[in-house]
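User: Please predict the structure of the protein below. I'd like the answer in structure-token form so I can feed it into my own downstream comparison script.

Assistant: Understood. Taking the following sequence of 411 residues as input:
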Amino acid sequence: MKIESYLHDIDTVSRLALRDYFHERLLSICAVLGLAAVLAPLLVLFGLKNGIINTLADRLITDPRNMEISPVGSGRYTKEWFEAAAKMSRVSFVIPQTRSIAANMVLVYENDRNTATLGVDLIPTGPGDPVVEKWGQVPVEPTGIVLSASAAQKLGVDEGITVSGRIGRTSGGRRENVTIRLTVVAVLPIGAFPVDAAFIRLALLEAIEDYRDGFGSDEFGWPGNSRADIPRTFPSFRMYARNIYDVSDLRDLFTAQGVEVYTKAAEIDVVRNLDRSFTLIFRLIAVVAVFGYFASMASNVLANVNRKSRHLGIIRLIGFSTRSIMLFPMVQAVATGVAGTLVAMVLYLATGGIINRLFTRFMAGGEYVCDLSAMHMGVAFLTTLAMSALASAFAAYRVARIQPSEVIRDV
């Protein structure tokens, strides 16, 4: 029975507080607009920080070329070195690269109208290659190739077309050539690889290097000396980190091993530093704004309580408990928080929409300059309610100290 009475008191006081809040609508509107004036710029600022940084980070993350680790100069990398590198947790893909002087081929495409000939660089690929798998498919057969957009355009070919690959060498003062039929399994977009190149399986690339060194190939039927068991070393490699945050660690690791590499770690660090700087600036502005508004709301609620102390004393006098009366300023503060946050969100959505439309031509599909998720909105809403309730805490304490005898004395 006591609990039911207490709940009834809470319900009655809450309704009284809301009716009083709406009765003094002019003061309430001013309080709501005051909160919205503080919160809306913070939402826009955080939306800009979140949208810009996320767009830059997504561009880095979604482009596998930003995870590439490229050696500077030539080295001598053994099969064991590549096996160890492939087991590194920060490495997603690594494959040997043969000598650049041997990693080229002349592609020929003949049709009824004309014959197109083009020299291309040969790039080793295999399962897990992030560049080829993002924009195409890795060849399954040794005779499959993936062409860059410029190479495919100059040859006039597309997926499924068969072309001839010519490899030449000089042996014993004589010029020798072999031809291999290759099937185009994919064509990369122009932004994926900007030069004339063909991605081929490592087995074919090794056979091409061996052929130019005077060796033959049983697999492809090319004449030459037997390579036998001569150990193979590679002067270079293609390597990709697992994510953009592993690039710097791999660079430092190879530098410590005496291997000089080129990475885009500097560009990645710029984005990470921007994220940290924007976060710090936002926090500083948010702290100043929040504490400023907190002090303003706390003083307004307290002034409202002092102005209505006689009315609150009468409510105490007619039998309401102290705990239920303490809800009076808290309900009004929370009402201001709810209304002010909703107004701020509407202002943010309008402002954010205008900002995103202004920069549409600079953004790709799904990218935004100003962007907040539903979770961000929810956190802002709950945080504002918590701050509103906290701001009314001292006013609630002041209500609890109002004595009914003071009201009787003033009657």
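That's the full token string. The chain has a mean pLDDT of 83.
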